Amino acid sequence: MEKVNIGAVITTPGSALNYRTGSWRTLRPVLDEAKCKFCNICWQLCPDSAIEQADVKAKKPIKIDYDYCKGCGICVHECPFGALSMVEEEK
Amino acid sequence: MGIKQVVKGNFATAVAAKLARVDVVPAYPITPSTLFPEQISTYIANGEMDAELLLTESEHSAMSAAIGASASGARVATATASQGLKLMSEMLFIASGMRLPIVTAVGNRALSAPINIWCDHQDTIAERDSGWLQFYAENNQNALDLMLMAFKISEDHRVLLPSMVGLDAFVLTHTMEGVDVPLQKEVDEFLPPYKPVYTLDVKNPMTFGSFGTPAHYMEFKYQQWEAMKNAEKVIDEVFSEFHEKFGRKYEKVSEYKTDDADIIILTMGSMSGTARAAVDSMRREGIKIGAAKLTVLRPFPFKEIKMLARKAKVLAVADRNISFGFGGAVFAEIAGTLINEKEKPMLIDFIIGLGGRDITQEDFYKIAEISKDAIKKGEVEEMVHWINLKEVK
Amino acid sequence: MASDELFTSGHRGCAGCGMAAAVRMVLQEAGPNTIVANATGCLEVMTTAYPETAWKIPWIHAAFENAAAVASGVDVALKKLGKREGINILAFGGDGGTYDIGFQALSGMLERGHNITYVVFDNEAYMNTGIQRCSSTPFAASTTTSPAGKFSIGKKEKKKPIASIVAAHDISYTATATIANYRDLKKKVRKALDVEGPSFIQIFSPCPTGWRYPSELTVELSRMAVETGIFVLWELEGADMNKIKVTYWPKERKPVEEYLKMQRRFAHLFKPEKKTDILNKIQEEVDEKWKHLEELNEMAR
């Protein structure tokens, strides 16, 4: 019989990362790096932790993790600087 | 040797919890088990027990808290009965599914409606699907001992299933009997601290109670099934160890004057003593009759029942419970056990003592009469008989 | 990075789930020395399909109506085992698990004074089972069991004031929060975790699937709920509601219509014709509420 943990206990924290929810998308957010002001509001509000934080000191902009981004559009809508826009997912 | 005391059944289960060094007791009062949390609170108030008593706002929350506490690595016990056990019902299945070795003393009491606080086995019988081990006490010594052994059996890594110990409402819970209360030192040697397999621990984070899809659910259930199977062996081991340490012998099925019996009466709980007295009376009349008592209902004692069945012409099962539309549960399970045996006795079901109706020797004489009749006719005409219903005069 | 978070990516929450954003905020504040007892609901289902879990902290789910009771057991067990120090114990529940079926266990936990922070992710219906009405559902909202129709305006009853009811238990700290005001939310989480004794936070969590709006508006909606005054951000220590501290005063309250018309669960109030009497009723109630809050504020000066 397949081995399962007794009591259905999951002993591997964060194993949800094995499931790439990025496959759900029909639209994807795209960053205009020049416009990113490193405020990290999008990072804070993403329901899927699919945005890498910007580093204001290193002037590194945010980065979308397309493995997990579901294309909900919150980041695009909330960015105060219009640095993000939604585009159709490539087929 | 322990200390001889004269105690009520509820006290016996409470002192067992104390001796077992239970960490957490989440509880809600219900007749006839209320004395259990009361006694625990008295122990704690006087510094005799180092435990947390969590008085929840319902039995459902008591079992829920028990689950949280057990998953955190604590040894947990509680007590309830009847409607309280029914309210916990959802959580009983969950405790077993989550493989948490919680021990619960159940003051076997009838189920509403109508509301009735007296003794029968319907409450625990109705939960026999829950994945809990089930033990039934005949007397207060049994209640104490089975409670102690339940921790050891449940916590065994081959088992890791919760246990319930049934003791008859009022007949045992509230009746004083002499018991031998083991010494703390002896219990410590018999029962080491609880060592969980998985715990809620920030140093090693785990997810308890995950979502089991059709892809996995059956395998988890099979694990519980195997654990119950393992329990058959673990129970024998623990019974044997207990006998060696404390001098009291326990068996899954205990027999009395069965070797040459034509009729064997099967009982559970306090009625077993009455059955043996009735057997003695009937033996004096020359009737070849014996009695057998089930102390363990889950896991079902298949081997022992099959061996017992070879001895008699009739197994008369005294069921202190009823499944409407079928009959008694113990009868049904014995029938299921024996159906494929090449040679099997006749089986008759006797519904007896519901809602605290007193069980007397007369009842067993009646049972013997009906059994003798079946032997004479060579068949069982009626499968289920209700004993001692009030007749219209 | 997704893998640094205590609540990881890969969960099966709907795109734009307000609750998921809120959970991240709560755990960012709580940190790794945290144990969560979670009721059955969207959060539990979407994060723990065996063998995958989005949680990197110890987490336990037992049933629907008992997150508070399970958490109570954890609290007491850790205390007995000498492992309680420095551990945050959180109970997470949705609407059902908090307002209705879980209400008893919540009340019991509060009364017993456990050092537990209870967080309700309030999306105003039983979402996991398909958007049925809950006592948390607001007046005139259409749900699958209180649908708007020819003879129905949606839910007839008002939203149960869960946070005031909790505060009436005279607990250490009660607060309301929402995701648009995340700094306020995190401050409140910090306070709740730091106080001794029970604390409670109601986090207003818009749900695109249940409220039926385009998913990118989740945060916008939580903002609008606050700006129209429909959802008040407040906090309180103890039970005296006269002492509540409003933590955000909208400069000029927007008309409730602007919030309601964004969601199809209120579409029947606008089409085929505008139900002005109902909209006025909703607006009046909000106005009354704020009048009272302003009076309290004046008295406090």
Report on this structure.
- The complex is a heterotrimer of chains A (91), B (393) and C (301).
- With 91 residues, chain A is of the alpha+beta class.
- Chain A contains 2 helices and 4 strands; from the N terminus they run βαββαβ.
- Chain A has helices at residues 41-45, 74-78; strands spanning 27-31, 51-52, 63-64, 84-88.
- In chain A, the strands form 2 sheets. A two-stranded antiparallel sheet of chain A has the order 1-4. In chain A, strands 2-3 form a two-stranded antiparallel ribbon.
- Chain A is elongated and about 55 Å long.
- With 393 residues, chain B is of the alpha/beta class.
- Chain B has 2 domains: 3-246, Thiamin diphosphate (ThDP)-binding fold, Pyr/PP domains (Rossmann fold), CATH 3.40.50.970; 254-386, 3-Layer(aba) Sandwich (Rossmann fold), CATH 3.40.50.
- A 6-stranded mixed sheet of chain B has the order 10-12-11-14-15-16, sandwiched between helices.
- In chain B, α4 links the parallel β4 and β5.
- Chain B is globular.
- Chain C is globular.
- Chain C has an 8-stranded mixed sheet with strand order 2-1-3-4-8-7-9-10, with helices on both faces.
- Chain C has 11 helices and 10 strands.
- Chain C is an alpha/beta fold.
- Chain C has a single domain, classed as Rossmann fold.
- β9 of chain B pairs parallel with β2 (59-61) of chain C, so a sheet runs across the interface.
